[in-house]
Design a protein that fits this description.
The protein has 117 residues and is mainly alpha-helical. 80% of the residues lie in helices and 0% in strands.
Amino acid sequence: ENREFLDLLGIFHPKHRDDRVVRSLKNADLPVDGTMSFGKFEDYNRKYPHLFYPAFRVQEKMRDKFMGLHWWKRKLAKYEEVRKQVQEHDKREEERENRERRQRYEVSKDLMKQGTD
């Protein structure tokens, strides 16, 4: 069921002779359904960085060959800036909604109070 994940690791570690890789795979609690959330992937990467190092190395080489590292650095910085802007916008929107909710609550509370007088 974890065949795809193991196949991917097999590409990066073709001979599986690396004791660390074999030990890590034995210790890893791989999801039974064969799917993996990004959070779980991050956990595995923290616990077993040597498993994924070749994949990140391939990514780095591809970035170097396609558009160059400088282009990717700028692209990722811009992405991070936009991500922060979206988060700030979402936070402001949530605060606005909370203010409106509190105002509606206060108005309804006042109306209820007037109704009992």
